[in-house]
Automatic annotation (TrEMBL):
Coiled-coil regions listed: none
GO cellular component: mitochondrion
Family the UniProt entry places it in: Belongs to the carbon-nitrogen hydrolase superfamily. NIT1/NIT2 family.
Keywords from the named record: Hydrolase
Entry-linked Pfam families: CN_hydrolase
Gene Ontology molecular function, alphabetical: omega-amidase activity
Native source organism of the sequence: Ceuthmochares aereus
UniProt-listed InterPro entries: C-N_Hydrolase, C-N_Hydrolase_sf, Nit1/2_C-N_Hydrolase
Superkingdom per UniProt: Eukaryota
Name assigned to this protein: omega-amidase
Domain CN hydrolase: 1-246
Signal peptide: none
Gene3D superfamilies: Carbon-nitrogen hydrolase
């Protein structure tokens, strides 16, 4: 099946972001994409100072539009972090998924908050305004089961391993790595998660905006279960297409059967919630 990653240029105007995102989703659908993913924070600038002002409840204006577009295009739409989600007085970094009938199939709240300090380069603390999610999120399609993470979640290998154990063959991480962590770890982490679990890994970033207060790395990418980069964007706004070949995935798992060779009598990782 064809997967499309929409590397959107994000402005400060929410309505413009939403309209442009839906235009590109329709374009991707017209080119045969069956699963379409939007980047982290596609509907607002990325920064703790913006989250409260752009926050919405779910369901709300943005998720309603995503639902309608998924139904119109008859696709599975992974809504990046459409907006900071407001619920019970707390804000969450949330990714919603809608099916071809417009129904919401999953709502993933970012489990690991991006709190880092690299002296002289970047300091960021999502926990100043956001609360963490407390569960992992998967959804089924006629093609395969898909596991979800958001950006910083990709650094935690245990999460991807559990998705693999639960039968996921594709992991999608809407993300917004920056100009410090992007060149160093963006591709490395994706290839590691793919090889470790013999799954496809897709990451979808906003386009780079050098004038923004937080500059995203871009380079939305798809990696196959052999660890090969099979599709990759540059820094500009674009749509990346790739065909997910589940026959190839099955062949790799047969050739190197690590999933059946795990020593569960010696070690194990479990999902608690």
């Amino acid at each position: 099946f064809r997967l499309a990653l929409i590397q959107l240029h994000v402005s400060a105007v929410k309505s413009d972001n939403l309209q442009r995102a839906c235009e590109l989703v329709r374009e991707a659908s017209a080119k045969g994409a069956k699963v379409v993913a939007l980047p982290e924070c596609f509907n607002s600038p990325y920064g703790t100072q913006y989250f409260k002002g752009y926050a919405e409840k779910i369901p709300g204006e943005s998720t309603q539009k995503l639902s309608e577009t998924a139904k119109e295009c008859n696709i599975y739409l992974v809504g990046g972090r459409s907006i900071p989600e407001e619920d019970g007085g707390k804000l969450y970094n949330t990714c919603t998924v809608f099916g071809p009938d417009g129904a919401m199939l999953a709502k993933h709240r970012k489990v690991h908050l991006f709190d880092i300090n690299i002296p002289g380069k970047i300091q960021f603390k999502e926990s100043e305004t956001l609360s963490p999610g407390n569960s992992l999120s998967m959804f089924d399609t006629p093609y395969c089961k898909v596991g979800l993470g958001i950006c910083y979640d990709i650094r935690f290998a245990e999460m991807a391993q559990i998705y693999g154990q639960k039968g996921c063959q594709l992991l999608i991480y809407p993300g917004a790595f920056n100009l410090t962590t992007g060149p160093a770890h963006w591709e490395l982490l994706q290839r590691g998660r793919a090889v470790d679990n013999q799954v496809y890994v897709a990451t979808v970033s906003p386009a780079r905006d050098e004038k923004a207060s937080y500059v995203a790395w871009g380079h939305s990418t798809v990696v196959n279960p052999w660890g090969e980069v099979i599709a990759k964007a540059g820094a500009e706004e674009t749509v990346v297409y790739t065909d997910i070949d589940l026959k190839k995935l099955a062949e790799i798992r047969q050739q190197i059967p690590i999933l059946s060779q795990k020593r569960c009598d010696v070690y194990g990782i479990e999902m608690k919630k």
